[in-house]
Task: inverse folding
């Protein structure tokens, strides 16, 4: 009886200890994954701060003793459509997006594409203003405007602004217009954006922004976020945890 009791006790104690070890290991793994998630989240917040303040970023940062790898890349085209600001119920749409072409001689052709996305039968949308936030280190090339207007823009810091006089240019349903100019500078243009002010009823200010793809890797956990920026505001439009 004593030997049988000892054998049963050994079996029970062994399985209990094994279960306890598994629980402890699971708790440790969950704690590590939680720390990694917090670290990756902090990495994305850091990337957003760098984008907002136009400062270069460190490829690695340390969060709570954990090393976090950061990457930030610019997007050629935003897949999320226009960003709209202004009050009122917006039923009429302008789609505005930018294209930049490298001419190979430290000049770049910048094209602002504008198309009317309103419902069929709606009256034309009138353009009040077209503006561009120029990348750091780049400047407008005098006399290079074409498209909606050939006038030189007003330069306000790093912004080039065309204030359109009367009669204002119109964009009818299903039609498009563009404003093109040349900017000068070296390197890869980053941080640029464009906007259009339109008038008629409740149409607000419709803009496109520069888009970024930021990733933060902390251990086994990675967060990927798409971020758009206009002026000094940033908007994370996606947040994916891997």
Result:
């Amino acid at each position: 009886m004593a030997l049988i009791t000892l054998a049963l006790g050994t079996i029970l104690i062994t399985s209990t200890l094994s279960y306890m070890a598994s629980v402890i290991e699971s708790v440790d793994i969950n704690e590590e994954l939680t720390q990694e998630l917090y670290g990756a989240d902090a990495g994305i917040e850091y990337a957003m701060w760098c984008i907002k303040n136009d400062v270069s970023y460190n490829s690695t940062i340390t969060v709570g003793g954990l090393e976090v790898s950061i990457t930030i890349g610019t997007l050629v085209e935003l897949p999320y459509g226009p960003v709209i600001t202004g009050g009122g119920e917006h039923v009429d749409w302008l789609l505005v997006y930018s294209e930049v072409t490298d001419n190979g001689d430290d000049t770049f052709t910048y094209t602002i594409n504008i198309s009317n996305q309103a419902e069929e039968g709606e009256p034309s949308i009138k353009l009040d203003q077209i503006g561009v936030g120029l990348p750091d280190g780049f400047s407008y090339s005098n006399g290079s405007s074409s498209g909606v207007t050939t006038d030189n823009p007003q330069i306000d810091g790093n912004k080039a602004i065309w204030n359109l006089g009367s009669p204002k240019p119109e964009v009818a349903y299903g039609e498009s217009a563009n404003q093109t100019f040349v900017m000068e500078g070296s390197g890869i243009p980053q941080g640029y954006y464009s906007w259009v002010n339109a008038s008629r009823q409740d149409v607000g200010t419709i803009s496109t922004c520069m888009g970024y793809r930021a990733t933060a890797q902390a251990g086994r956990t990675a967060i990927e976020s798409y971020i758009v920026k206009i002026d000094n505001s940033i908007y994370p439009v996606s947040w994916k945890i891997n």
